[in-house]
Structure formats: structure tokens, C-alpha cells
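Box S1 | Example of a co-folding query
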Amino acid sequence: MIKLNENYGNLKDSYLFFNIKQKVDKYVAGHPGMKIYRMGIGDVTLPLAWCVIDALSNAVADQAQKGTFHGYMPECGMPELREIIAAFYNGRGVELTPGDVFVSSGASDELGDILDLFDSSGSSIIMEPAYPAYVDANIIAGRRIFHVTGNEANGFAPVPDNDTPVGDLIYICSPNNPTGAVFSKDALRKWVDFANLHGSIILFDAAYEAFIESPSVPHSIFEIEGARTCAIEICSLSKTAGFTGTRLGYTVIPGELKRGGLCLNDMWVRNRTTKTNGVSYVLQKGGLAVFSDEGRREIMENIRIYKQNARYLTDALDRLGVTYYGGRNAPYIFMKCPEGYTSWESFDLLLNEIQVVGTPGQGFGDAGEGFIRFSTFASPEDTKEAALRIFDLLTRMKG
Ligand code: PLP
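Box S1 (continued) | Returned holo structure for pyridoxal-5'-phosphate
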């Protein structure tokens, strides 16, 4: 009898977005025509940059001609794209070679697949509240999980101490989804030292690096001395360049990263050449445009719009004196729930009273209880109105 992966039975049902949808659908059915302000979504809404559209269109046209047609692409990525990504890091003072960079179909795929490099009897440190895929990918792989709690006392950026369990893998997401918190250079140095001391490997999720505006906040784990011997960075163009529906990302595995005499970069080359036939030519041409000067200018303009959205919300919360995290270096604002309300009760309150939809913090693990996440990806008009409504509601509740 075939034996299936019984770890699937250990997954908790993910009710978060299902429950949100059900509640919103029920509200809409009971209030036909009522406008809903959707601040819960983690998906981008602005279109791709024009120069990316041009590059994609030209690449499609290439596929129509014998002389320019491309078949299978190199499994680890088009050399020009690996080069331009390495140059992008070099420009920020991080030395990488094109061989350290692997082009991917996005961060989610990589966060799951990368576990192929590690024995399933191993353990992972996951800082909560967390992006739910970290926990689920580890459960599916049958790995042990140690939870490290992010909270107000550590500003949702916990650092290792004498009680920190030693896990083989350490997940760090900065800027963080859902809290919007960022890890300082000093905090990351503590994790790099911890990882090098214990032989652990950091999986650094940099999906939101393009939103960092504070000059002292690292964009990459490789800005930290010692990271090349203990870290893998997973990044995505989803939020940076609006590629959520287009799909492109990259993973950095420095050649020096070795354990037990094995080089993880070599292992990943072997993995990719076995498990993929490369990312499509058309998408990689779009990716090249993202890293061009014009592309950088255009994508930063979209990010500026999302950042202005963040300001509408944070200005309202600042005026009210409400505690929140994020919003400055991340497209998420993690707001403390009104006194006496759980995160789901806050969700219901906002939906029923002011038609604003957030994401209850509890959906990101118990450490998220007491908070509600707002994203800054909705339209400026909706975000401005949602900020006004939140301000009015919380003012009324205070008074
Ligand atoms: N990592 C984090 C922290 C995310 O929030 C997301 C998407 O929301 C991803 C990774 C997935 O990115 P991608 O669209 O590249 O799969």
C-alpha cells in the first residue's frame, strides 16, 4: 500500500483568509451596494512598469521569429539577469558573483523548495507572528519547529539570548510581514553570530526590502559581516515591482556556504537542474528591465504611492496616539487593537462600523493576538477614506 506524506495531517486548517472572505461576503450580502475598504490584502494593485511591459512584449515577439526564438533557459537563470542582480547588490556594497544568484519563480516556491537541502529530521526557528508559509512548509517537510516570540517588548524583532533554542534553520523576515517591523544591523549581527556559533543557517526573506527608507536598516543579510558563511537570502519581485501575478524572484546562496564538506550553492545548482527547466525567457527579460535604471525609477514611483498610503494611515494613528508597528519601512501597519477587543473582535468592529477590512493578527500565530494588520496596497482614495474612518471610529470610542 502506498504511504503518503502523513505530515499533511499535521497542518492546521488555514481559516484566516477563508474566514475573512466569509465574513465580508456575509456583510456585503446584508448591505447591498455598501462600499468596503479592503486594507487586508497583501497583493499589489498598481500595474507593471511601462519599461517592463515593453520588455515582456518584445520578448514575446522574439518567440515568434526563428532567429530570436528561445527554448529551454539555463536552470539557474539567464546569465545577464544573474549578472545584473549581482551588480545591484555590489552597488549597495554587498559583494556577490553572478554564480551566487539563482533566478526563481518567486519567493513562495523557493521557501518550500529550499528545504530539499536539509534533512527532514532537523529543526527550524520561526519568529512569530509569521508569514504562514514558513510554518506550513516545515510541517509538510516533517521538521521540528521552535517558536521565538516577537512582541512589544522586543519591538517584534527578537534577538537570540541564552534561552534561544538551537535550530538548524533560522527564519528572519525583514521588513516583516505581518508586523512591518525591521531588524537593525545590530539585531541581525546577533543572529549571524548565533548561526555561525551553532552551525545554523539563516533563511532571510527580503521580499519587502524595496520599502526600506531608513538609511541604517539593512536591505540584505549579506550587509552583515559573517553572513556569507551562514545565510541564504530569498527575494521576490512581487512587491518590489508588482510581479505577484507575473512571478519572478531570486535566491542568493554564497559559494562559501558549506556544511559537512558540502557546498550549498553546488547542491542548489544540482537541485535546480533536476527540479526545474528554468524560468521562462519572457519573464526573465521583464526581470532585466526591472533592474535597468529606468525600471528602478518606475518601480520606485509605485512604491512611493504605497508609501503615501502608509502615511495616510500612520498620520491618523499618530494623531490618535494609537500604538502601531511598521508603516515606515514596510507596506504593513500592525495596529494595537482597541482596549478589550481581540483581533477577530476588532476585525468585526471595523467591518460592521466603518466597512474597513483588516487582517486579524491572530491569523499569523498566537503572538499576533491583540493586533490587526493593515496593508498599504489599496488605492490612495480608498486608503485615505479608510484612514478617516478609523480616525473617527477610534475617536468616538475614546470619547
Ligand atoms: N515572503 C513574504 C514575507 C511574503 O509576504 C510573501 C507574499 O506575500 C512572499 C514571501 C511570497 O512572495 P512571492 O509572491 O514571490 O511568492
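The chain has a mean pLDDT of 97. The longest strand covers residues 123-128.
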